[in-house]
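Feature request disguised as a bug report, sorry. It would help if multi-protein outputs had a clear separator. Right now it looks like this:
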Amino acid sequence: MTQVKRFTPILTGTHRYEKTLSTRGHGKGVIIEAPILAYLIETRNGRILYDVGCDYSKIANEVKRKKFYENDGFEFGAPTMSEEQRLPNRLAELGLLKEDIDVVFCGHLHFDHAGGLCEMCHADVHVHKAELESAKNLEDEAYFAEDFDCPINWKVFEKEYSLIDGVRAIETPGHTAGHMSMLIELPKGKPILLAGDAADLSENIEKEIAPGLCWQENEQMAIQSIRKLKDIADKENAQIWPNHDMKFFKSKNCFPQFLS
């Protein structure tokens, strides 16, 4: 029986960029606005955050913003993130302190998913071994070494596992070396399958299009992970949630309310 009580998607910022960053080889010249999300999973035995968004200081501070985002590696510039959207402030709107989060689960360690670790140093941080190694080696420009300068309580895993009854980590490499998705069984209704960046948009799922950035250019690995998510969704009667699809997010946004 699932231990999940509530599930809350949390908008932590937005980023405008060319669609090809989400759909490999498709959408050249089309600019999209993508939500940057964290997901709060409240269980009978603690609280889990899937992803933690960006480091606010690298966006709000002009010197840091120039260093990290205004360079050749970031053609489309910095994300947009307000003080209100910092995770501690979002959690406060839900009546929670950041210390009320027991586990941060990083689907992967790119800047828009793990940058906020600096605000969650008290929690255990779950990550795939291959992902942590890839991030420490800075295998692509979306890893910021400085995101990991703070004290982090890493809990490193090498395969799929259950965090608690009703919450399961799913291996979906391709976008990055150790990307992980998450299957969440709610008390009622269909389970939610968080794709993470294995599928930015609904289009990635429906048309089986790889994300724009693929680890070591392994497009086929990314497509295999999309197909794996679809197979799991069929088997579990789950709904796949793409991670950077604004239209999909708006259809599900209930903040500060929750799904249960």
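(second protein starts here, but nothing in the output says so)
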Amino acid sequence: MSKKKKQNRKSSDLFKHPGKWAVVLLLKAIAMLPFGFLYLFSDVFYFFIKGVIKYRNEVITDNLKHAFPEKSKKEIFLLRNRFYRYFCDVSLESIKLYHLSEEQLKQRVQFSGTEKLNELAEKRNGAILLAFHYNNWEWSSALQQELRCRLLMVYNKMRDNEAMDGFLQNAREKWGGEAVQMGRAAKVTFQYFAKKGPVVVGLIADQSALASSQMWAMFMNREAAFFPGPVKIARKTNQPVFFQHAIRLGRGKYEYKYTLLVDEPAKIDENEILIRYIEKMEEVIKTNPEYYLWSHKRWKHKRPEGKALIQ
């Protein structure tokens, strides 16, 4: 789509959906708040969604009960409250990304394992990076500043809210990476690969796939569908697969740690790649479970009869 057409479309959407654009203006205003005010707002937000609207209370409780059957009712209650507090912080931090300065970034974000990631990406013409909804995954877009090649950030487009989608895309791309819609991820990746231009493809690979997916596996004690795209791209390109672990160091302070998950994916079965990814996620989640996105309806689908469960 040409730049002129995009501008005309935005103008049209502005008059069709003024409420959505007003929300984006509010988010931009929130993004300008100093961190002290941001977390004051988060504290108020916490009491509102926990005690007043009880945001997805049943979904969160059900997910936690299945994930930790050994925990008592009281322990689940306390864990749910800790999740609510984290959720409020990370939601506002994600908005803050839009106005996060480079100086603030250096004070609040650190990376480890990037030398190995850079080394293999340059040597093997790229790498696949599997992240998940744990801690502040949005700020990891700043990884681009640590890379010696291009970062592609695969995302799900918000088709019913052009204004919000544009806001999020601008925030993610501010450090120089390229946001790519999930449906175009494989095509764009192979284009870079064909040009011999090293590229790191980052995917939040724990998204809930359709029930028709061919990849079903146990995840946190429940059957879950996974998108086959990440492992298929890895096997097709034989690029190394890395895992992102976001570690919370304090309120609004994170370390993003990158470890090699699979060196040569073409040499092993795609199911083995998925299993390694799931095992790593579970290991991290069980350490600090309140930092996972339990409000997400991750396990909403049922495995159809005849589809095998990956062991």
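Even a blank line would do. Unrelated, but nice: The CA atoms of residues 154 and 184 lie 9 Å apart.
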